[in-house]
Amino acid sequence: MQNLRKGYWPKLLFGRGIRSEIWCYIFMSFKFFRLYISTVLGKTKVPINYMIVEVMLSQLFMLPMPQWLEAFYGSTFIELCKLAPSTFPQVLAQAVEILFERLETMNVSCIDRFASWFAYHLSNFQFRWSWDDWTPCLSMDPESQKPKFIKEVLIRCMRLSYHQRVVEIVPEDFFPLLPAKPEPIYKYDKEGAGSLPGTMTAHKLMSAIKSKCTPEEALSILKNVPTPGDEDDAIFNPLKIEVFVTSLLFLGSKSFSHAFAGIAKFHYIFKALAEGEEAQIAILRNMYEVWCNHKQMMVILVDKFLKTQIVECSAVANWVFSREMSQDFTKFYTWEIMHSTIRRMTKQVQKLQHEVIEAQERIESAADKKNSGLDMDDEDLPTEEMLERMEERLESVQSQQKNLFLIVFQRFIIILTEHLVKCEAAGQDYNTAWYRWCLGRLLEVFLVHHDQVFKYISTLESLLFTSDIDLHILEVFQQFCSLRS
């Protein structure tokens, strides 16, 4: 610290390579870094502001994942803007413009992080931005990277404020890119709802839930819902699921806490209705019908359904790739759900792996002590039978994880192949904005979850990524495999 006051440290910094040193000192101590910045700014011809922005953004966009939470980079940028308000914001704005111009060639994961960080940054500076400079993007294909980026930034701004505030921050020309007002849709209250099947039961169920009925009483009301088409031997009743999920989620629409309370109280009914994967997909489909205008609520609800074991990870994957979700397939929240689902599956595997390893070590340690004639504490010592059951559970979860990856990659191959065949038959260019988004998401799944995917690489190669599929798709898989070749 004494050397810094004498002006010695900046010289050492520049001599050893400023970019790597900036990064080291940011993490060593941000207080120390603040002192350095206040000492150097305006006293050197080195464009230190530009170098700091370059270093920070390079770390934020590191693949497959940044080293630290994205919030760290955002909060650091805010602090730097406060440290040098006359220079740093302008440099950062120039960087944003450069990145915006390069969106067409940017990695999908980086576009995600760019939108998330930019919205966070705007929220800390009253959402001020020169939106008019981006007006030419309004005439582009809505699926193109630039208009989609703007739309996703506005969606994230709404998460950090409220809908009317987002409406106020952009010019009228940008209104087509504004997110819808995040309000629930309850179709049984709409005009003409009386003709919908299940309307009377839905209103009766709503009244009962408002009167604080028990789950058993609510289930008895649902028993009156007829099976569509008089298919008495159907595996599940989609109308019963529709009435229950729609009514409960609408009643819990006041806040996340209200929704969670409703799910917790009527968890028994959810489990009774979601007996198979098709029934679980029906739950997700009806959740979407209620909350299609509130992306964040859907992300949180799906995670809650997974946490409470109402739906399985495979059901979420099949729902994401279903035709009903095709219009939202390239939207960022859809992949927020997909990655969250894969991570939850991975956490289950890792948790059981840790438990099995710990049990094996305890059994081995106890055996060593016994052979050495030492006293043993047999309390809570797992038996061989307990270890076998734990290993069986681990094998079951690993099988579910493999199945999840098989579903995801198989669906990718199907939709990409359909697109390529359709374009070839019509004589059109296959390299559309949708195609680039889709191929980018495929690569993203490979990279973000590389540790888990590599465990099943031989299965994927023998079952899915064979020489029969299109070379454009196979090339992504081969590039991924080459990372460890």
What's the quick description here?
The protein has 485 residues and is an all-alpha fold.
Q: Give the terminus-to-terminus CA distance.
A: 46 Å
**What is the element string, with H for helices and E for strands?**
HHHHHHHHHHHHHHHHHHHHHHHH
| Oligomeric form | single chain
Low-confidence stretches: 1-16
Instruction: Using the CA coordinates, give the radius of gyration.
Output: 27 Å
How would a textbook summarize the main sheet? none
Shape: globular
Question: What percentage of the residues does DSSP assign to strands (E)?
Answer: under 5%
Give the strand tally: 0
- Helix content class: 55-70%
Average pLDDT works out at: 89
Number of helices, where a helix is a run of at least 4 consecutive DSSP H or I residues: 24
The chain-level structural class is: mainly alpha
Describe the structure.
With 485 residues, the protein is mainly alpha-helical. The chain is 66% helix and 0% strand. The protein contains 24 helices and no strands.
